[in-house]
Each structure stands twice: as structure tokens, then as C-alpha cells.
Automatic annotation (TrEMBL):
<dbReference type="InterPro" id="IPR011429">
    <property type="entry name" value="Cyt_c_Planctomycete-type"/>
</dbReference>
<feature type="domain" description="Cytochrome C Planctomycete-type">
    <location>
        <begin position="39"/>
        <end position="98"/>
    </location>
</feature>
<dbReference type="Pfam" id="PF07635">
    <property type="entry name" value="PSCyt1"/>
</dbReference>
<dbReference type="InterPro" id="IPR036909">
    <property type="entry name" value="Cyt_c-like_dom_sf"/>
</dbReference>
<dbReference type="GO" id="GO:0020037">
    <property type="term" value="F:heme binding"/>
</dbReference>
<dbReference type="GO" id="GO:0009055">
    <property type="term" value="F:electron transfer activity"/>
</dbReference>
<protein>
    <recommendedName>
        <fullName>Cytochrome C Planctomycete-type domain-containing protein</fullName>
    </recommendedName>
</protein>
Amino acid sequence: MLKTLVSATALVSVALLQGCDGTSVSYTQDVQPILSKHCSECHLPGGQGEEASGFLVDSYTSVLKGTKHGPVVVAGDPLSSSLYRLISGRVDKSIQMPHSKEPLPVSEIELIEKWINEGAKDN
């Protein structure tokens, strides 16, 4: 009985990490469209956000590079990733992203969190 319970718990844990359908989050199909939709207005070359922080969302490489102050994504650790903290409201409201706009939908924040948890892969 205990073995069955442990196995069931392990399966649920794997399902939660991978999503209900067992797929992982894709940077290209899932994360990049979110960043384009909510961040590209300021964080493309020449934009206000790029000038202020150096952060660009025009490619996987630039997202992983981060800002002029360092990386914004720590693969496997959303709480150490300033990108996640800034969009999820885990920072002072004055620096929450996107500035002066509606927060990202919870489902999109969760996708980015899951992508970071999965290792922030370029997939």
C-alpha cells in the first residue's frame, strides 16, 4: 500500500513538473510569444527598457544574457530569476513589469516559471 502511494505521489509530481500532457515548455512556442507580446515595446534595440537596463527580448541569447547588471534567468530557479520576480509581482510595485500596464496573466507567468524550472532551455 505504501509503495503504491509513493508511486502515485511520484507520478503526480512528474505530471505537475511536465504539465498535464507530459510536454515541456518551449522557449520558441511558449515563452518568446509572451515576451514579444508584453515586453518588446520597451525591450527591443533602441527601446526605453533596453536603454535603461540593457535587457533585450529579441532572441533567446539576449534574454539569457540579461541586463547590464547581469543575468535575469537562473536556470532551474525562478525565485533567483529577476525576470520571474519582476513579472510575478514579487518585487516592489514601482519596478514590477511591465511598467504602467496590466500584469501578465497568471497562466503566462506560470509558463515562464515552468520554463525556468525546466532549465530555461532553447527549445
